[in-house]
Amino acid sequence: MGLKRYPQSELANEVTFLEKMFQEHSVTLYGALSIGRALCVCGALASALAWPTTVVADGNQEMTVEEAIQLGEEFGIAVGEVDEEVQKELKLQRPEGVAVFEVIGNSRADYAGIKVRSVIKEIDKKEVRNLIDFGKAVKMAMKECNFTVGTYEPADPGDPVGWGVNFHFVGCKRD
């Protein structure tokens, strides 16, 4: 049995059919159609068998809060959402970013100089508004040897400015 060849006009209808089938059977599909026909067929088969399936292209990976917290620990920090206390202390207009509650010694975060009570606002030029943004950005950045982390930090005692903006260089992982 050979593969049937479809004219371009019929392929467009087939793609529409597959998209509808994925939607009707509660299968999440992100960019899979551009990856190739085989991936769509696998997803269609899983859908037909009622298996919960999520197909995700590398650029749009799903992230959970739990995974983001775990990735923070792998990087060397205990993180959480910015609460009212941190927002007031750093005089932030909005509770955006990710608060650093602990820095693990001898970690990449420690060597980069990230401080407790700082708020991470950017990782490798990607804005961090919440834990999901943090998780996605740190996951991508940790695959690289070097990257930067932008933070708001409380001032040192005696410093007349209430907070400071710092950019931390994160080097290669040390053994």
Give an overview of the whole structure.
This protein has helices spanning 8-24, 37-48, 65-75, 84-89, 108-112, 131-141; strands at 28-30, 54-56, 77-81, 98-103, 119-123, 126-127, 147-154, 163-170. It is α+β, with helices and mostly antiparallel strands and 175 residues long. A hairpin with an 8-residue loop joins strand 7 (147-154) and strand 8.
Secondary-structure map:
Layout: H1 8-24, E1 28-30, H2 37-48, E2 54-56, H3 65-75, E3 77-81, H4 84-89, E4 98-103, H5 108-112, E5 119-123, E6 126-127, H6 131-141, E7 147-154, E8 163-170
Parallel strand pairs: 1-2
Antiparallel strand pairs: 3-4, 4-5, 5-6, 5-7, 7-8
Helix pairs in contact: 3-6
Tags for this entry?
6-stranded antiparallel beta sheet, 35% helix, alpha+beta, Pdz3 Domain, 175 residues, two-stranded parallel sheet, 8 strands, 6 helices, 23% strand
Short overview:
With 175 residues, this protein is of the alpha+beta class. It is 35% helix and 23% strand. The protein has 2 domains: 8-60, no CATH class; 65-170, Pdz3 Domain (Roll).
